[in-house]
Specification:
mainly alpha, two-stranded antiparallel ribbon
Length: 197
């Protein structure tokens, strides 16, 4: 329970729904600041809960951890609380515009569809500690391995067939929230692939 003393890491994990291992990983990667220590224990305040909630919302928006770190590392605790107070639609608009511009730039620079997909996969793999597979075709055929912070979250996935042989897999609880962005992504993927398949 939170007191003036703060939370122990196990209490922070329980309140946030994130594992102790994930919290330590976020601190190591710079997504969370180093905690205060009292004796031999680390103490966490309520601002850690806000930061963990913001990280989760950005992960739900399909941002890789490296990008999340870039976007939140200079935010004050007050700015984080203001962002979390936004409605889901306003929050998504705030971050979706930046993401769609970045994806458009990557797509314009890519000479073919495999290079485009390989670059997106590399951006997501930068957050992993797994060794990368060098061949784009091997990367595309390999089923994704769960990341440590995803293994405890049970969820159901929805399959969306973009065109024969190409599918998107999206968590069911995100379908309604990101319907407009998903529809836009399907259109863009169709444009990219329609001349190559």
């Amino acid at each position: 329970m939170y007191t003036d003393e703060g939370l122990m890491i196990s209490e922070l994990a329980e309140k946030s729904g994130v594992t102790v291992r994930t919290i330590r990983y976020y601190i190591q990667q710079g997504l969370l600041p180093q905690p205060d220590t009292r004796g031999r224990y680390s103490i966490y305040d309520e601002d850690y809960l806000s930061r963990l909630e913001l990280i989760q919302r950005l992960k739900d928006a399909f941002l890789p951890l490296k990008e999340i770190k870039r976007r939140i590392e200079n935010l004050t605790n007050e700015e984080i609380k203001r962002l979390l107070a936004l409605s889901s639609d306003d929050f998504n608009l705030q971050f979706a515009e930046d993401s769609s511009k970045e994806l458009q730039n990557v797509a314009e620079e890519s000479s073919d569809a495999l290079t485009y997909i390989a670059r997106i996969l590399d951006a997501h793999n930068e957050d992993d500690e797994r060794p990368r597979v060098q061949s784009p075709s091997r990367r595309l055929n390999r089923p994704p391995e769960p990341r440590p912070y995803e293994t405890r979250r049970e969820s159901r996935w929805q399959r969306i067939e973009v065109m024969p042989g190409i599918e998107l897999h999206i968590r069911e609880h995100l379908l309604k929230r990101y319907k407009t962005n998903i529809d836009r992504a399907v259109q863009e993927i169709t444009k990219i692939f329609k001349h190559t398949i």
